[in-house]
Amino acid sequence: MTYKGWLIYKKKDALENQSFIDWFINEAKLQNIVLELLYRENFTIGIVNNKRSIIKNNVSIEPPDFAVVRTDEPFLSLHLEELGINVFNSATISQICNNKELTHHHVHNLNIPMVDTIFVDGRQMNDSYKLDYPFVAKLSTGHGGNNVHLIENERDWQNQLPDLTSDTVILQSCNVSFGKDLRVFVVGNEIVGSVLRENKKDFRANFKLGGSAKWYQLNNDELKIINKIINNFEFDMVGIDFLFSNSGKLLFNEIEDVVGSRILSAVGNVNILEKYVSHIKSKLDSRNSGH
């Protein structure tokens, strides 16, 4: 059986990730799946004639078998699911992982270690919410190291306050190893690989911000922590990020719903998209067989 799917991106993000998109479409073709790139700006969703609809060029279009949504847009995923489309990641995972408050809420229920984390309404920000210096302030919906600020003193705090005006701001203790974190790549319930990211020039370890990366071999204690998270969620493909305590223990940080694989390809001989397409195909086969 040939499945047809949409790979949904915003135009700007698609241009920045063209090689990943080409790779994804080719891997899908190799497994008898037709995957079409669809720009988010080229269609709308809504309720027309009392029916949920996807509208392109003022015409309702037929839904595909599945969609891979790469736009950090949980409501879009929910709308597509209600139309009977299999969505990767699901709307539930998208909603949780694109909101750092919700992510910490659910992961804390699993007794996973994490740094002290404060959730603040950015519209009511004032001095009463501060942690001891230094601390990190970031937007609840931020990604990729953007809108993340190191607050080392009162002047930093006052300078950054105007930028911290979203609904929710996350304040986190800096009682960690600076400029160092771990990203664990997951497809389904399988750990595909782990990458240690370090940046000696920035407190953020992100690869695209100039950090270095190398393959990381997880020990048994770390595997237990990660598998506890994996077994609690129904992931399709995500990246789970950890910080390190000063004693080298993992501290949960966040989960990336729209995770890129450039860093994994750079340090390891792993074809994560081959695994992801196989996972998607397996899920579609299972649902179509009624299992």
| Number of extended strands | 16
CATH topology tier name of the largest domain: D-amino Acid Aminotransferase, Chain A, domain 1
Overall tally of domains:
3
H/E element sequence: EHHEEEEEHEHHEEEHEEEEHEEHH
If strands are numbered along the chain, what order do they take across the biggest sheet? 14-13-12-15-16
Assigned CATH superfamily of the largest domain: ATP-grasp fold, B domain
Low-confidence stretches at least 5 residues in length (pLDDT < 50)?
none
Taking the sheet with the most strands, its summary is: 5 strands, antiparallel
Straight-line distance between termini: 17 Å
* Rg (CA only): 20 Å
Shape descriptor reads globular
Give a brief outline of the structure.
Helix content is 29%, strand content 30%. The chain is α+β, with helices and mostly antiparallel strands.
